[in-house]
Input
Amino acid sequence: MIHPMLTTQQILKGCKKCGKTLKGRSDKKFCDDYCRSSFNNELKSVSNNLVRNINNALARNRRILENLLPRDGQKAKVNREKLIQQGFQFRYFTHTSTNRKGNPCYYCYEYGYLPLENNWLLLLKREEEE
Ligand SMILES: [Zn+2]
Output
């Protein structure tokens, strides 16, 4: 008969950092403070990387829109494919707004686009407002 204190879960449960079998209290997650702090530091650096990657993607998106827009403040019609080819990532934008017709505009900082039909986009720069 299996000892009631040694359920399979407890036997398999190891330190979250190094995987070593834990002794002592059943709610223990780490063998010692060293494992605890290095585990937490790794978690932190994973989320720092995530923030950095998203910031980089937003900055790249912004640069791509900026480069495709004429300097004179005119709007430009561009195909979605062209943006993707340049590394534009549509899932990242800073905010949205709706125009007078109720269509959504997606912005990466002051540059944005309004989706049109057939994968065309109208690129625009936010007017000074507010
Ligand atoms: Zn450990």
Notes: Strands lie at 76-79, 95-98, 104-108, 111-115, 120-125. The pocket of zinc ion is lined by residues 15, 17-18, 20, 30-31, 35 (CB under 6 Å). The mean pLDDT is 88.
